[in-house]
Every structure is written in structure tokens, then in C-alpha cells.
Amino acid sequence: MVLPIVAYGDPMLRKVAADINKDYPKLNELIYDMFHTMYHAKGVGLAAPQVGKSIRLFLVDSSPFAEDVKGEEQEQLKNFKKIFINARIIEEDGEEWKFNEGCLSIPKIREDVMRKSEIRIQYFDEKFDFFDEQYKGLAARIIQHEYDHIEGKLFTDRITPFRKRLLNKKLLDILKGNIDVDYKMKFSNKK
User: Fold this and answer.
1) Which residues does the annotation mark as catalytic?
2) Residue range 74-88, pLDDT digits in tens
3) pLDDT-based confidence at 92, cuts 50/70/90?
């Protein structure tokens, strides 16, 4: 089932999400619905708070980015489809680099965001097997973006105050639900 994506301005997007255990009700169904929702909206990542669940769950499928890079990173991105439960980024390292990010909860806005190039993350998969892994490049960036969602942060928090002021009208339009998108959204302040 395609779920509505929570829009910018909803308090759900500002909560630090809670850990879950393997007995979380209908977890596999939620994961399936989140992948279906992400693909329908043409995203490469989706976090549970974006579908109204304040839990530490996000998923990624970076295959759309694979054609934009070459070599080893292309192979990694082509097959990079993962589920992250109760994730904790343990370390961020490497050079900061700029990349133009967007977000399904903040449609039609893209901005350059600086992030570290390498991360180490600990998490559980959908079977609750534990992983401690390192990622770099675009894979690390996608994870960091989705991880921000379970920490109650948005990519717009990472841009300069000047850039955010320039986006103010567009952000207010999203807040009010005055935007056309071709996927289901939930606007908390729509009149």
C-alpha cells in the first residue's frame, strides 16, 4: 500500500524516534509499504517518521544513483538496498563534500548540503541481525540523510540561514499544503 508522506511542518518530523524490537506490530508489512511508497514517489530513501511512525526505521535503495557514478562506487550503489532498524551512526569521518539534496517531505526544493564522506553505522536488519558497517560516498550520504529523519532533523537544518530565508515562501507553501505533487502527502496545517 502507498502511504501518505508527512510534509514539512508536521511535528512528527522533529521527534527523535524510538527504538523498536522484533515484536513491533506488522513490521514486515510496514517495511513493504515503505518500499512501495518510496518507489511510487521516486525516492532513494524513506524513514518511518516520514510516514507518520516515530520509530528508528529507515530504508534505502540507491540504484537510481548508480548510473551517475563510475567504478567501484557504481557497483556498490547498483545493489545497495537495505533496511536499517535502531541505527546509530558511531563515526563520521573524511572530507566534507557538497551534494544537492532533496526530500520527499519537502517536495520541489533542493539545496547543496555539506556532509562527511565516510560513516560507521551500527544497526539491525529486518530479521534483527546486528551489523556494524562502514560506508563512503553517495551510500554514506543517503544513509546520513535518512538517519537525520530518525533524529528529528531535516536537510534544511544543514543549509545556511541566508539560504533558508530565500526558501521561506516555498517552505510556507508546503506547510500550508499549497503545492502539487504526484504522490500522496499528509499536510498537518492544510486549511
Assistant:
1) 146
2) 667 677 899 999 999
3) very high
